[in-house]
Every structure is written in structure tokens, then in C-alpha cells.
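Case study.
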Amino acid sequence: MLPKLFSSILHCSVFLHTHKNSTTTSSSTFTKQAFASLLQSSSSQSHQLKQIHALLLTTGLSIKNSLITQLLTSLTLLGDMTYARLLFDEMHKPRSFLWNTLIKGYVKNDLPIEAISVYQIMRGLGVRPDPFTFPFVLKACAQVDDLWAGQEVHAHVVKFGLDFDAIVRTELMLLYAKVGELSSANYLFESMSERDLVAWNALIAVYVQTGNAGKALGMFHVMVLAGIRPDSVTVVSALSACANLGCLETGKQIDLFVIKENLNSNLFVNNARLDMYAKCGSIETARCLFDKMPQRNVISWSTMIGGYAMNGDSGESLRLFSLMQNAGVQPNHVTYLGVLSACCHAGLIREGKSYFKEMVKSNDCNVQPRLEHYACLVDLLGRSRHLEEAYNFIKSMPIEPDAGVWGALLGACTIHQNIKLGRHVADILFNLAPEVASYHVLLSNIYAASGRWGDVEKVRQKMRKKGVKKVVAYSAVEANSEVHVFHGGDRSHPLSSNIYEVLAELIKQITSIGYVPNTTEVLHDMQMEEKEATLSTHSEKLAIAFGLINVRSPFPIRVMKNLRICNDCHTFMKFTSKVTNREIIMRDKNRFHHFKDGSCSCKDFW
Ligand code: ZN
Ligand code: ZN
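After joint prediction, the assembly is written out as follows.
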């Protein structure tokens, strides 16, 4: 590529020198074409573009706006925004198209603040924005979650009469949804003249991306009821919402739709189906699909490898990884994250270290370990009692460890009750991420377990002083295609009295076969009876009691919890699966626990 380009440049300058006596028009027309084709063929290296720019300047062709525009576009595509800006600043009265190119370049290169600032300069100079300006300025406001700037741009949109432009309106809607102004987003959506599939898809996707999977599914239902036919983009978002919520029943219904509409030849749709089944705990169904897929890519393999790891089948996860390599599919960092979590869930230290080494040695930058891989290895070492080694591993990291990495070590200190190291790590974390409640909670758990209530109180005071709020725990259970959400001590469900009765009876039964409440993780310095009462109404226990009433045997009861399951609930689930002879599939923040006949698939290592 490079020698060819240089020969073209050479040809171009030789041409200019040998033809300087020919008529200006024919020469410049030819050289303009030569430059245009040069620009087209040199989109891979920014220094090549700079050489072309230098040539344009020496030939006097730099005043040809179309060439400069092409050069600017190529620079923004290459991501050389510094040079693109220098070039732009040299221009005399650039037209709105060039302003748009620069703004778009900043947005595409993840520089939203610069994009907004260029828009402000443009407005200051009195350049009239057009329908192509606003979508990117609005995207920039959404990228930085700047509602205030977004509202100002919205006012300009109205001023220039573009508020009914479908693309501008969709971007406005996405902006409001992104910054959490869902009512404004919905208002814009509902007042759109065309109910256009693109807008529906955009809104559903933004709900999924912003963690509002429930709302995404709600919109999906409304869309179907409104008679708008979902396409492959819609079903990918809807399946991903089901995966996030662990809604297997709804996911299955969407899957039936996929098959009915013949969308199952689309690779992206099939990958979303795999992901939904794997994340809803139906790894066997995911596997059947995977085996039948006409086409697979690295995402399909990685989904299965991560899925097996999450479902506690580390052996199959690692077996698939070697099958993938034998099939000649190049793994990426996502694949390796699945492989490392498989090792982590099974406590496979030797294998974990060896896979990690493979990543470090790789020449492929898409395989090089990232912070989440370091966190995973720290987790593996820490959980397996190698706390010192985990600490030294963090200290030797070539990249700055983040709260995720230190958090993994603090979690391990909690499991193994290492107060000294735990305190040290917690101090680092309180500096790195003072607002994250879970680190404070982990430290107080270490203190609570060793009865140091004075220290527990100090941590709680610190949390109150800094205004740190705990994430509210909840558990969701699906019955008859409806999702029911429970919080700890929740009495808001219509079947509440029935649920509490079943739960009390259940506790009586499992206590008779050896269940003893494990109160070590209860924070407060209260009397034993109080502690047991708090424990007995944890959200997952209420969800199970509800499931026992409403999920027909022999179907397993599936519960999704937003945080990690506590030790006591884990023991409770094992006993419950035994006395009720029911299978319980529980997904917590980290992984699946399949409880059956008194034991859990995680073998108590989680
Ligand atoms: Zn619990
Ligand atoms: Zn478990």
C-alpha cells in the first residue's frame, strides 16, 4: 500500500512540474482528479494524508474546497482529530457542511465535549445549522449526559423549525432517554407523526443500554400491540432485555416469533438467542441452538464459553474453548473473560494462570488483558486463599488497577476473614470509589463476622457522613409469564400473607433437618432473634416462597437477584431444594447457582 501511494504522489508532483506550461484549466482539472483518487486510496495512514495536504499547499490546490473537504473527512475517519482541527482552522469561512464534518468527527472519535464546543463556535459565528448538524450535536450531549446542553440544542432545533425532522427527533428522544428523562423521551416518541420502526428500535435499544430492561420489554409489547412488525434489530434488543432480567418465559415467546418470522438465519439474532438462553439458566437449550447454527462467529463461541462458566460447568466451558481454537476461530478478550471466569468459578488456579499468560504473550491487542481480566485473576487467587499472591499480583500490574480489581481482593478478604489486608484494601477503595456502598458493606461484614461492632458502627457512620447509599437488594421470579419483584421484608405483594405463611412453614421444615441461620453477615449489632428475623425475609427467600406457590412442579423455580446471594440464603436454598424436591435456579450478580437435592452446582465456591 505504502510504496504504491508514494509512487502516486511522485507521479502527481512529476506531472505538475512537467505540465507547468500547459493551460491552467486542463492541468488543475487533472491534478484535482489525481488528488481526489489519491485521497481515496490513502485512508489507512494519517501521515500519508499529511503528505497530501503538504502537496496541496505547494500546488495551490488547497483552495479547492472539495479536496479539502475530502481530506478533512479522511482525517476524521482515521481519528486524527488534532490535525483535522488544524486543517479546519486554516479554512476561510467554512460552510455548514464542513462544520458538520468536524462535529461528526469529534462524536465518532468519542470527543463529545469538543463536538459541543465546535457547535457553540459555529453558532457564535452565525453559521446556520442544518438537519445534518443536530443529530451529531445531540449525540454528543447524550454521550456526556448533559441534559442542560441538550435542552439548549433542543431549543435551537425548534427555532430552526427542525423539530419534526424524523432523524433529529429520534436523536432528541435518545438523548432524553439516555439522561434519564424518560417522560420527555416518551412524549417525543408519542408525538412523532410516523411511528416509524426505526424510532421504536432506537427507543427499545436505548432502554436496554441504560439498564431499563423492563421498560424495553414494555415498549416491545406496546409496539407489537400497535401492529408494528418487529424486525431483526427489535428482536435482538428484546432478547437482550430478557437476558438482563432473566425472563425465560418471555424470551421463549420472542424466540417462537423469531422462528415464525424466519429471522433465525440471521447471525446477530441467533447470537442474541444464545445469550438469552445462557443468561436465563437454560444452557442446554443454548447448546442445542449453538450446535444447529448454520454460521457461528467469535461472539457465538464466546457466549457459550461465558454461558457455561456462569452456569457452573467450567469443564464444558474450557472444552468448548479448545474446540473453538481447533476450528480456527480467533478468540478475543471477551472469550478469555469467559475462560478465566470458568477457572475462577471452579478454583482452577494453575489453568487460570496459564490462560492469563497466553493473553499477555499474545500479539493481538484484542486479546491483551484488560482490567476485568486482572480482576478475574485476583478473584480466582483470592477466593482460593492466595490473598498475599493476589495482592502482589495487583502491585505488579502494568496498568493502573481500578476499583473492580481491588474490590475483587476485598471480597476475598471478606470470605477468608482477613481483617488486616481487608482494611488496607478498603482504604484504597474508599479513595478510588468513595461513593460505592458495596465496598463499605464488605468491610463492615469483615468486622461484623469477628464481632467488632464498634468498627462496624464507624463504617456506618462514615457511610452516613459521605451520603453513601446502599444498593437496594431485590429478587425477581417469573411465574405465568409475569415477573414479580421482591425486596427484603417486602409486604407489598397481593399474595403477601400467603407467601409469609409458606416461608414460615418452610423454615420450620428445613430447621428440623439441620438448617441453622447464619447470622454472621447481618450488619447490625442486634439481638439474635432480630437478626434471624431480618435474615428470614431476604428478597430471595420471599421470591422462593412465591415460586413454590405459583410455579408448577416439576418446572424449576428461577430467581434473579441483583446482588450476590448471602451465605445464609445459599444454605437455605440447598435445604429447600431437598425438602421440597424442587430444582431452584438462581442467578446472582456473579453467576448461576443450580440447587438440586440439597446441593448447589457451585459446590459452595462462589
Ligand atoms: Zn440472603
Ligand atoms: Zn451456589
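Observations recorded in class. Residues 1-27 have pLDDT under 50 and may be disordered. Residues 570, 593, 600, 602, 606 surround zinc ion (ligand 2) (CB under 6 Å). We will return to this complex in the next lecture.
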